[in-house]
Amino acid sequence: MVKMTDLNVIDRPNWCPGCGNFGILIALKGAIVELNIEPENVAMISGIGCSGKVPHWIRTYGLHGIHGRALPVATAVKLSNNGLTVFTVGGDGDGYGIGMCHFIHTMRRNIDMTYIVHNNMIYGLTTGQTSPTSEKGVRTKSTPSGVIEVPVNPIALAISAGATFVARSFGGDVKHLQKTIVAAVKHRGLSFVDVFQPCVSFNNVNTYDWYKQRVYDLQAAGHDTTDKIKAFTKSQEWGEHIPIGIFYEVLSPTYEDELPQIKDTPLVKQLIDNIDISGLMDDFT
Amino acid sequence: MVKMTDLNVIDRPNWCPGCGNFGILIALKGAIVELNIEPENVAMISGIGCSGKVPHWIRTYGLHGIHGRALPVATAVKLSNNGLTVFTVGGDGDGYGIGMCHFIHTMRRNIDMTYIVHNNMIYGLTTGQTSPTSEKGVRTKSTPSGVIEVPVNPIALAISAGATFVARSFGGDVKHLQKTIVAAVKHRGLSFVDVFQPCVSFNNVNTYDWYKQRVYDLQAAGHDTTDKIKAFTKSQEWGEHIPIGIFYEVLSPTYEDELPQIKDTPLVKQLIDNIDISGLMDDFT
Amino acid sequence: MAINRLTWKIGGKAGEGIMATGMIFSQSCSRGGLHVYDISEYPSLIKGGHNNLQVRVEDREIFSQVKGVNILIALNKETILLHKGELVNGAGIIYDSSEVIEPKEINDNIRLYPIPFNNIIKEIGVQGIMKNNVALGASIALIDYDFGIVGEVIKDNFKRKGDKIIDENTRAAKAGYDYIKNNFKNDFEYKLEKTGKPGRMVLTGNDAICMGAINAGCKFYAAYPMTPASSILHFMAAQERRFNIVVKHTEDEISAINMAIGAGFTGVRAMTGTSGGGFCLMTEGYGLAGMLEVPVVIILSMRPGPSTGLPTWSEQGDLKFALNASQGDFPRPVLVPGDIEESFYLTQVAFNIAEKYQTPVIVLSDKNLAENHKSTDKFDPKKVTIDRGSYADPADLAASLDTTFFKRYKYTENGISPRTIPGMKKGIYTASSDEHDEEGSISEDIDVRIKMMQKRARKMDTLAKELKQPELVGSQDTDANADADITIIAAGSTKGPIKEAMILLEKEGIKVNFLQIVYLNPFPSEKVAEVLGSAKKTAVVENNFSGQLADIIKEKTGKDVDKRVLKYDGRPFYPEEIFTAIKEVVTHG
Amino acid sequence: MAINRLTWKIGGKAGEGIMATGMIFSQSCSRGGLHVYDISEYPSLIKGGHNNLQVRVEDREIFSQVKGVNILIALNKETILLHKGELVNGAGIIYDSSEVIEPKEINDNIRLYPIPFNNIIKEIGVQGIMKNNVALGASIALIDYDFGIVGEVIKDNFKRKGDKIIDENTRAAKAGYDYIKNNFKNDFEYKLEKTGKPGRMVLTGNDAICMGAINAGCKFYAAYPMTPASSILHFMAAQERRFNIVVKHTEDEISAINMAIGAGFTGVRAMTGTSGGGFCLMTEGYGLAGMLEVPVVIILSMRPGPSTGLPTWSEQGDLKFALNASQGDFPRPVLVPGDIEESFYLTQVAFNIAEKYQTPVIVLSDKNLAENHKSTDKFDPKKVTIDRGSYADPADLAASLDTTFFKRYKYTENGISPRTIPGMKKGIYTASSDEHDEEGSISEDIDVRIKMMQKRARKMDTLAKELKQPELVGSQDTDANADADITIIAAGSTKGPIKEAMILLEKEGIKVNFLQIVYLNPFPSEKVAEVLGSAKKTAVVENNFSGQLADIIKEKTGKDVDKRVLKYDGRPFYPEEIFTAIKEVVTHG
Ligand SMILES: Cc1ncc(C[n+]2csc(CCOP(=O)(O)OP(=O)(O)O)c2C)c(N)n1
Ligand SMILES: Cc1ncc(C[n+]2csc(CCOP(=O)(O)OP(=O)(O)O)c2C)c(N)n1
Ligand code: SF4
Ligand code: SF4
Ligand SMILES: [Mg+2]
Ligand SMILES: [Mg+2]
Fold it and tell me: Could you tell me which residue ranges the Pyruvate:ferredoxin oxidoreductase core domain spans (chains C, D) (predicted)?
């Protein structure tokens, strides 16, 4: 049995005291323990941002890459060794800003892995600029006169892009989050979880309280997760009441399912020292 | 009055005979004539692809930039001279593949300009690889065993991203297309038009006939363009019956509206030789 | 007793307002007519890690930090442990009296000034975060500086936050001041006195770049945040309405440079700024601007790579990258300011070159230059005249046909073609990333290709001819020594410590000349070759691992420098390090 | 009468099957034991623009095109007008008899073979598109070659399309063949005869790269289409199920390289391929791989820039870009194959270097090498042994703690640290783009930074030591001339025309040595300096504007070559051009 301590590292996370990332890290570890996945069979992939540091603070294999590019890395990790449980973690800027191209294309690929976005509606690590999820009008270092564009709606985008598991949770509710992550990992195919994450240093609007006063659980409310239109409709709710939980879940073949190349043996375990190209050379003669 | 011939250039487009781009070019010119916009006040911005060559074959100002990056260029052209009518034209690979990040972020910006995608569901200029709009299972040079992921749905994505004018048309129906482009240009804010464009060289599935047999006009069918959920629902229709026309249109302040910097004078017309930074220097003393 | 010559340092956890307090100190010194140079260190995290800021003050112009701290404000114990080694004899530590400092922890010659921060704060009824103001005030008392100036600076800095905040900050500082005056003898060895001369600006290289850009008429700034270029975005954004600039925080750096290109194409002076990782994403657009012949200014502010590297530290590791980024050969002017004044003036020059030569121009800075403050005389906003380059002659335009494109890429002797912008009647053309003929139409013709490559390249020749070769100088910018023992060649922010080191070397009787490379491209090969040919000895001083400038020098002149003085731990050079290295070369070869 | 020594050319509109027809001709010659080298030209559009393909055939190994066409198949009139200047005396033109050719349009010494394509096609009842087969057959008759071989090649090529297609193609070719035999005298001066020796492969550099990659165990290929690298994607995709490779056409090049990094990190041999514009987008990932020490092979296939440039033509304009891409200093091995064999073997070497040195490796090719075909002996798949580098010792792993990360970045003498991959118990670590310590944890420590930079750099030193310096050769790969008049230095695809030019020069009594640079980095400075020091004269031959290789040589050795022979119009060198340029240098300096 995997224990919480198996996932601990010696260094303490250097996030600001009170940062919402702490709760997410706990839920993430909790989910891995609950699912009983050996740490060496987990790959934790991230880009750059406060949230991107997660792989350094959990004892699994990790890759802390470049800003916005974690999903392609994770995709290849999974395709190279489909025996691994692969997580991608990162910020809203990382995933919905600079990484938006990969976000949409990964959603339509249905690789069996889990993507968790620490959505604090701000650029934390670069000390407080607007993020794609910042609300219209918000004043930040890079938008001192207020954000002009409307925020992205990651839930609606993921649904529109073809994701097969789309959920939202809240870092301030570790239980809900852990449950959601467990469901995400169990889902066969790409699972996407947008997580509300209070940033105590640069976002003094969307605080723990702000969320607590607004979030309600879709599952408790009896939401039908199999209906795409209803899921989309729910994704449009914002303001006084904000839904969390699973918006949409549907089963369809994973990307790996359609690759006979890795049906029997993961790529990484295939022998490469006896490849025979003589037939290939004949083709050119 | 602007005439069709004012927009002609000496060179003939070097697209394959029968290519759907010809119809789009005619409709585009027709729309500019119909709207009576002086050619020198039009900026036609494109990336790379067969479709990306449009600026070379219409006598307006043009910029034929790099693959997938036309929208940021166009955005800045408009913000630099908001007196111009700005078009972005390009392919499905250009716009929905490599350019997806800019696509989503431009949709939420509501700059008053028009984006037309020549959607041939294939990479034309690079001789026939899969595009993000290729249907699942399609065999192309880059996917000889068939495309695995589900296609992107540009209409659903644009709606989800916050676009204020979302339409689809068909290059085989120049009248419909011209009407749609005219409506797009007249719309105050970002207008997005996905155009079905037969590629006679590399896409022998989605042919003129294929489209003709399937498309029906949303406006003729009495679609309510102001309802986002209905628009999204319509965006999900595919197969035997495929809607064209305006899916969604809503009025909201443009990006430019919220820039007092350019309220009176476009940036390009502001004098720069008498800027006084002495107060700024005082701030640092 | 040392008057007007000290280094003041404050350290504590990230998020405790170290930077703001340091800024107040620097400004206070500057307003008293003193010169300051400050440098800050912070890790890539928001709160809790160790931050520090060090201000050097003198009554002559100073160009870098130096070794040896005279007064250390330790907001926590860690600061003492980390920095006690930097303290000189007679230095003082201001710290929280609740911390226990064992005698063995600290050198006998160091004076301790424990202060009951919490009590004081409680007494005067302000927030705990004001601790650093108390400490600041205490330090002012210790060095016997004019508290009135400090009060004014606090007032100005918190103007926008309202009277209450000003009052609290001032009271906190005053309480610290009084505590020292009341509880300690006035025998601290290091003092500051105001000079009565007017104050200077206290600003960073990034501030200067922004002022330069604004003064040059930059109307469009698009960028994605990246240390150490983010503060340019913040500055420009803060000024967007005052100076009518459109400032856009874009979705990524690809968008940023393509927007800048769009603006440049439309006739607006446009700029973008980033660091290495973001510049990677801009390289394709960089080449595009080169091909379209669209003016764009790119601020590339270096930090240590490879990859994310040390994101909040400094390096000059992107010289060769900047010079060779993007496929193919095209004009790539690269300008390297060495200090804050040059950051201001060269940014303006960059805009002029960009428009005159219709090409992207890189201004290469680094974190040291970008983020450290220096007291600086006000700039001369009229020194660099705006040159918008060659727009198409209206007569030519009127004469051109209605059916063809304008010859936007006309072959000319100097390589520069007449420019039109959208909106100009009869100036219509398409700017194409494909190779194109004079009218901008795509062409694969051999003749067109050759002529167009040559035309573009000629712009660089023209520019090279226009530029003066750099001048060799002696210590303190005097004429070069005819019989110098060694010549230092360098580019960028190492200029400051080099200037300081030259003073030290001169004192030891070592005569040093200095050749600053401001244009990395077009490179002043002639002058550099001459110097390398005639100097007794030569050295480069670079903040990178491999000696990139030395490599470039060799590529351009065929000559090796005798010594590569390199530092690549993310920290700037101390003058003393350069002094030692150069002395070693001179004395032992 | 010239036997087994001719150049055959076919031209027409894009989309008319020019390439396929040329391929049949080349393969037919090769199967007859002859050597072929073909080169195609096409514009960046799909149909209608002018395409042409030229095949040179001899009974000795040949390495490039030469000037002078002996037989021209003109599928349209434009082809005649464009290429008539290339025809030698006695050459023949096969063309549609419905085209009118005025006597003044064509030289007297050219023979005309008008063929009623349409009639023939109608008669035998095949599609119009088969016109080129008719022409092909006609050319076979003219040169008196064995039609049986052509029939077999057609059969093999259309195997997958079914018997009907095979039959139609064969009949069309036969009809053209017969038409010539029946209507013209058998007096054409240029003939081909099969040699009875076994046939060779006819393939491109890209084909060879793919075979090399597959043979090296590449299991993951991610790319975004871009000429001239697209055909690698097509090849790998076509073979994905046969060789169990995951091939991904990604959303962009950024994704492509990051996927390759993900695969490399997981322990799978991975590759990506692109051209300049796409490589721009990969530069950030390139640096990432350098920092993470993850093996990745990047094929950078050059075409003329800047920007989109001439997308379907060739250039060697990205040498300095490849060497300096991405911020900071890190090991950047760059390998440059000069021909098809080297494309095969060096790709395998690249995988070995990537894994052994845990670093990204660039294989630099160009459109000429990537897309032109050459008849080539079968490769030796056993020549390059797979070397997977140093994985962590299981004993070390077992001994390591459960609470710490594995020392994945251990400081070692040769710079190479033991590697673990996900799934390995106790090998757990995080690969970080931030500077990190031996365990991969983020560190901003001065000492760690310095040691880690040095560790990474040492890998390059170790590699440099492992490599042999290149050898100087004489004409036809003989030993170098002791008293050569000149030494040519070059890298990449110019090798072919240089080898041909050397033969020509030798015939004129000019003795030439050749030094091929295969490793642009680590650069063989020692050997190059020695050659530059001892050669009577030196020249580089490069397909770019500025002489990038010559610049690199100067940076590395301090020495100028005497002459930069440059061509940058997108076309490859003709041996004759090199001959002339070199002769000029030798005779007039
Ligand atoms: C290419 C590139 N551009 C910019 C940066 C600088 N940068 C680092 S993190 C970050 C954004 C952080 O915001 P987010 O992704 O929301 O993460 P958070 O810190 O809020 O968790 C940026 C812009 C970078 N590292 N790389
Ligand atoms: C960065 C970059 N990658 C790849 C290419 C090669 N390329 C040119 S056009 C194109 C795709 C064309 O497809 P699409 O955008 O759908 O346009 P179409 O030709 O179908 O109109 C590609 C991949 C490029 N020019 N730049
Ligand atoms: S800046 Fe915000 S997101 Fe980053 S560690 Fe601090 S609280 Fe968390
Ligand atoms: S390849 Fe397709 S899209 Fe391109 S010009 Fe030909 S028909 Fe049109
Ligand atoms: Mg964030
Ligand atoms: Mg397309």
Answer: 484-578
Contacts of residue B42, defined as CB under 8 A and 6 or more positions apart, other chains included, come to B32, B60, B61, B84, B85, B86, B87, C422
* Cα(B100) to centroid(ligand 4), Å: 22
Pocket test for ligand 3, best of A25, A48, A119, A120 (most atoms within 8 A of CB): A120
Q: Is the peptide bond before A144 cis (omega within 30 degrees of 0)?
A: no
Q: What is the pTM of this model?
A: 0.98
CB contact under 8 A, B50 and D277: no
User: Which of A50, A117, A119, A134 has most ligand 3 atoms within 8 Å of its beta carbon, as the pocket-test mutant?
Assistant: A50
CATH architecture label of C203-376: 3-Layer(aba) Sandwich (3.40)
Q: Locate the ligand 4 atom nearest the alpha carbon of residue B14 and give its number.
A: 5
For the stretch A156-205, pLDDT in tens is 999 999 999 999 999 999 999 999 999 999 999 999 999 999 999 999 99
Average pLDDT, chain B: 97
Q: Residue A203 CA: which ligand is closest?
A: 3
User: What kind of fold does domain C2-199 have according to CATH?
Assistant: Pyruvate-ferredoxin Oxidoreductase; domain 3 (3.40.920)
Question: Looking at the partner chain, which of B110, B229, B235 has a beta carbon nearest the beta carbon of A233?
Answer: B229
B:C CB pairs within 8 Å: 206
Nearest of C471, C363, C1 to residue C192 by alpha carbon: C1
Q: Is the CB of A48 under 6 A from ligand 3?
A: no
Average pLDDT over chain D, rounded to an integer? 95
What's the CA dihedral at C164, C167, C171, C172 to 10 degrees?
60
Rounded to 10 deg, the angle between the D548-557 and D525-534 helix axes is: 90
More confident residue, D265 or C404: D265
| Tokens describing residue D379 | 């490769």
Angle at C311 between CA A88 and CA C494, to 5 degrees: 160
Instruction: Kindly list the residues of chain B whose beta carbon comes within 8 Å of any beta carbon in chain A.
Output: 97-101, 104-105, 108-110, 132, 146, 148-153, 156-157, 159-162, 228-229, 232-233, 235-236, 255, 258-259
Phi-psi bin for C69: left (phi > 0), alpha (psi -120 to 50), beta?
A: beta
Helices (H), chain A: 21-35, 70-80, 92, 100-107, 154-161, 174-186, 208-214, 228-235, 278-283
pLDDT surpassing 90 at residue D17: no
Sketch the domain layout of chain D as residue ranges. Answer: 2-199, 203-376, 394-466, 472-588
Q: Does D113 touch chain A (CB under 8 A)?
A: no
CB contact under 8 A, A153 and B162: yes
If we measure between CA atoms, which residue out of D543, D541, D535 comes closest to residue D513? D535
Angle at CA B156, nearest 5°, toward B152 and B162? 125
Which pLDDT value is given to residue C101?
82
> Between C117-124 and C163-183, two packed helices, what is the crossing angle to 10 degrees?
130
- Of all residues in chain B, what percent carry a pLDDT higher than 90? 99
- CB–CB of D211/A280 below 8 Å? yes
CATH superfamily, with its number, for domain A2-282: Thiamin diphosphate (ThDP)-binding fold, Pyr/PP domains (3.40.50.970)
- Nearest residue on chain A to D27, judged by CA atoms? A285
State both tokens at C512.
């040093």
Is residue A202 within 6 Å of ligand 3 at its C-beta? yes
Mutate one of C149, C214, C249, C259 to test the B interface: name it (highest B CB count within 10 A).
C259
Asked which of C127-141, C340-354, D332-346 is least confident by mean pLDDT, the reply is C127-141
| DSSP H or E run through D507 | helix D495-507
Q: How far apart are CA B144 and CA C224, in angstroms?
A: 39
Task: State yes or no: pLDDT of C589 exceeds 80.
Answer: no
pLDDT digits (tens, 9 = 90+) for D540-556: 999 999 999 999 999 99
- Assess whether the region C203-376 and the region C472-588 belong to the same CATH fold: yes
pLDDT value at A243 more than 80: yes
